[in-house]
């Protein structure tokens, strides 16, 4: 078995140095002070209220499920799961909503507002927005056919936001595999977590601006020039022109079962048809030795995918902002720090 020389592969050497850095400086998805019965005495109806509101939202539009899961992901990757993604800009605070990965990507804030209003009527000043978003993401997945997982509670809402961190911590659609892996490691999440959490793309849509480079780039090559793929690619190009003007047009990331949480996303990657470069990299990149095996595993075994997705979502949801437990609060309005 030939050994890979780090000196002859400067990109790999750079990646290894990056790994040592992130392992020494990462956040921790470990054992936060969260409990399953945190609101048992102070707001016993919290889970039922969130569930009912999410049922209404997903019934109105199944795509709302993906919006809430994406909000949760973007929240947890900046300062931990502290509700900072929900904060609007004010004179004294720059929120994260206008950061490059978020500005045209995130919706669903009104759903969280409605849940918060219900809970403030039932249990004023008790349930944090960070907890609401975490519960809502779990319920969103269940409502479109995905797995259940327990959600430990007790997060506090931050009084700060991380605009700069949002621009650096959140993976982007055209990012390379090694860079994305480093961002997950920084959060205390493994490569296995990364591949499983990417499976959330089995629901939801992407903007033309996010997949333009893919459909006018190597999608034809990674898919092996399959006639069915060629037809699908032609459809994609009809809604996404090679230059400007159609940036906000959308396409499902899983065109087979776009509103059902299943393992179809991984089958699409096996065929080389991933809509986003960042997704297809997990199977087609020259650095995808470990991730390719996981993609194949989850394509073959939906139960294994569901189990790992549940575990990884729990782990991600447990990334906490330690400062929020000292300086944090329970916001009365998720969009603004209490005054």
TrEMBL record:
Alphabetic keyword roster: Calcium, Disulfide bond, Glycoprotein, Heme, Iron, Metal-binding, Oxidoreductase, Peroxidase, Signal
Residues holding substrate: 171
GO biological process, one term: response to oxidative stress
Record-annotated active site: 74 (proton acceptor)
Cofactor list: Ca(2+); heme b
Any GO MF annotation of the entry: metal ion binding
Residues bound to Ca(2+) 2: 202, 254, 257, 262
Signal sequence region: 1-24
Cofactor binding description: Binds 2 calcium ions per subunit.
EC number: 1.11.1.7
Transition state stabilizer (site feature) positions: 70
Disulfide feature: 43-123, 76-81, 129-334, 208-240
Top-level taxon of the source organism: Eukaryota
Top-rank EC class of the record's enzyme: oxidoreductase
Binding sites annotated in the UniProt record for Ca(2+) 1: 75, 78, 80, 82, 84, 96
Residues covered by the Plant heme peroxidase family profile domain: 33-338
The reaction(s) this protein catalyses: 2 a phenolic donor + H2O2 = 2 a phenolic radical donor + 2 H2O
Similarity section: Belongs to the peroxidase family. Ascorbate peroxidase subfamily.
Protein's name in the database: peroxidase
Species lineage: Eukaryota, Viridiplantae, Streptophyta, Embryophyta, Tracheophyta
